[in-house]
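Quick one, tokens below. Sequence please?
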């Protein structure tokens, strides 16, 4: 198959999964809104909300990757991103006695790893996707967020909640816009 044929096949696979990308963005947006507008959010609730969010986001990423005919890095990057999300979600949900700084480090680690994987995915798809900068930007923002969160890990949870919620909303909006650009491209 020619390089142009492979690029069209990759774009077709990605465009077919635009709904999953939009759903990931919607879940992130809803997570951000809930934690921003929940007064007096406590550690246990934040842990449960993040755990559910990360696990659902990971599953939404993992399932299309498992179904994809792609091979190599184009398949393994989304598989890894989905697995990281599910693992981070399960850690937040199932680790008894997780401290506030422990939860912040779980969120920070998840953000850095998934951000790096999104940037790598955007680099691999740069020839196939016109607006790949949205995915790369979302990944870079995740890495920056994770690093800042790790630096601020000793801060109180109420101080970090708006930071986490705002990040989730920005990434959610970027994923939704990217998904609809893919949808328009597939038509």
């Amino acid at each position: 198959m020619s390089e142009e044929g492979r690029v069209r096949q990759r774009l077709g696979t990605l465009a077919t999964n635009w709904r999953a990308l939009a759903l990931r963005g919607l879940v992130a947006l809803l997570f951000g809104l809930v934690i921003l507008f929940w007064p007096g959010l406590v550690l246990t609730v934040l842990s449960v909300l993040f755990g559910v969010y990360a696990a659902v986001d990971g599953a939404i990423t993992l399932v299309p990757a498992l179904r994809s005919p792609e091979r190599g890095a184009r398949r393994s990057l989304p598989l890894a991103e989905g697995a990281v999300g599910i693992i981070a979600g399960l850690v937040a949900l199932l680790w008894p006695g997780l401290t506030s700084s422990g939860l912040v480090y779980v969120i920070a680690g998840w953000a850095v790893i998934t951000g790096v994987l999104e940037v790598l995915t955007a680099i691999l798809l740069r020839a196939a996707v016109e607006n790949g900068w949205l995915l790369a930007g979302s990944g870079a923002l995740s890495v920056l967020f994770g690093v800042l969160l790790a630096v601020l890990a000793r801060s109180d949870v109420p101080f970090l909640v708006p930071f986490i919620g705002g990040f989730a909303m920005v990434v959610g909006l970027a994923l939704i816009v990217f998904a609809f650009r893919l949808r328009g491209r597939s038509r």
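Helices lie at 3-16, 18-36, 43-67, 73-94, 100-124, 132-151, 157-186. The chain has seven helices and no strands.
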